[in-house]
Write a structure and sequence with these properties.
Number of strands: 0
Radius of gyration: 20 Å
Order of helices and strands: HHHHHHH
Largest sheet: none
Distance between the termini: 26 Å
Structural class: mainly alpha
Number of helices: 7
Helix content: over 70%
Length: 170
């Protein structure tokens, strides 16, 4: 049996397929992070209230899961156009909006790539200076550069593929 998304992936270019599969991975990460965060929080509440104990490191993990859900959720929101990164198009006539969509995607790609590069450098410095017993905490912080890299990838693919509005009507 073919899932609805698979039909979409088969009939598109390699760029659209790449975007489709990244979308699935991001959505899976966001949903898994949310379920894990809620489940771990519930277990922590039960353990503390009923047995006066807790899971070592669970608070830190929950805090980082909040970051994961927030940042990956932001990527999903931007990808689905729930959040627009640019504000210029609101004031422009339709003809100019269509002409400027690709340059705006390119500009967004460049900005997100620069932020991702800075975030990677910051994360790497943290990784080098963290005590060996806390490396797992630094590893969880990779979500910040990862999310900006995913945003840059989505904007780059949209630059190459073109706007979704034209793609869906074609």
């Amino acid at each position: 049996m073919i899932e609805p998304g698979e039909h979409y992936a088969r009939n598109r270019t390699w760029k659209a397929k790449l975007e489709f599969y990244f979308t699935r991975i991001e959505s899976t990460l966001a949903i898994s992070g949310l379920i894990l965060m809620l489940g771990l929080s519930l277990i922590e509440i039960l353990l503390r209230n009923l047995f006066h104990t807790s899971i070592p490191g669970a608070d830190i993990l929950i805090r980082h899961l909040v970051l994961w859900v927030s940042f990956i959720g932001a990527v999903v929101a931007v990808r689905e156009r729930h959040i627009k990164v640019e504000i210029i198009s609101v004031w422009l006539p339709e003809i100019w909006r269509s002409r400027l969509e690709r340059p705006i995607f390119l500009f967004s790609t460049i900005v997100c790539t620069m932020i991702a590069w800075a975030a990677v450098r910051f994360w790497y410095q943290e990784w080098l200076n963290v005590p060996p017993g806390e490396k797992w905490i630094a590893l969880l912080s990779i979500v910040i550069p990862l999310s900006f890299l995913l945003l840059a990838l989505h904007f780059a693919l949209r630059f190459l593929i073109g706007p979704r509005s034209r793609e869906r009507t074609a």
